[in-house]
Amino acid sequence: MLDSHGQIVATNRAWEKFAADNGAANKPQVSVGANYLEVCQRALAVQDEYAAKALAGIEGVLSQRLSSFSMDYPCHSPHELRWFSMNVSRFQTAGENGVVVTHSNVSERTLSAKEISHRSKNLLNLVQAIALQTMKATPEDFSRRFSERIHSLTLTQDLLVHNANHQISLPELVSSQLGHFSQLIGDRLGIEGPFILLNSRAAQALGMALHELGTNAVKYGALANDSGRIQLKWHLDPSQRQFEMSWREHGGPPVHQPQRRGFGSSLIADAIKLALKATVTLAYEPTGLCWHISCDATNVLSL
User: Fold this and answer.
1) How many CB atoms lie within 10 A of CB 10?
2) 38/6 Cα distance (integer angstroms)
3) How confident is the model at residue 256 (pLDDT cuts 50, 70, 90)?
4) Where are the domains of the chain?
5) N or C: which end of the chain has fewer CB within 10 A?
6) How many angstroms separate the first and last alpha carbons of the chain?
């Protein structure tokens, strides 16, 4: 609580804890008797724009130009990003005007909003890239191929939204992208690997890659006949902190190196390499397509 001159006349335990968390425990400048307006003015000396807004807001309420004032401001600790909301309201006692100033931790709300904005921009950029590259690679079949790829991306986004902390398990991602082959699992489609929680970047990249691999298998590979098989495996080496994943086809029609490299090949090779900082091997062997990736586990895991 501040009197009409900005002097601190009362604090509570929450304020004392706030001061302690920010390295100002028991310091005179934040204790009863100190002038809070002077604290804000000193912060102006280091060009703190939030201090300028806070000072103007408190002075506005004290002078009754404003009925109340609120603002969000960053107050980061050495260990985490934090945002607080400051609210200023009037009070009157013994004929003297003053203000009540409260500080509330709103880090979760603020950082979530910033994360949503960041993810939205990234997603729009990804959709734009998919549209442009699909048009270049298959202009005669743009509508169908673009719709298929956006549907794949949508499946991954749905999982991210509906899972806490934007995490997806790798088995869950595989199921979403290869679910239309469910009747083949255990017979012509072998899937083997441990439970792993992926971060959103890895989920998007691997989801698109699995979609392309499955689509190509139906059109040209192991699922283009009645006898081909696919083996999908992934492995996490805790000691080496290394993640590996492979897709191997055999028994399908004869495989030939494509005469030109399309956008699908870029998604399963270049995009994975860039997103996960991975080593990618894509081999068109006579027995079938072989795709293998290896990267630092921290580029894949949700930590």
Assistant:
1) 11
2) 8
3) confident
4) 13-105, 109-299
5) C
6) 41
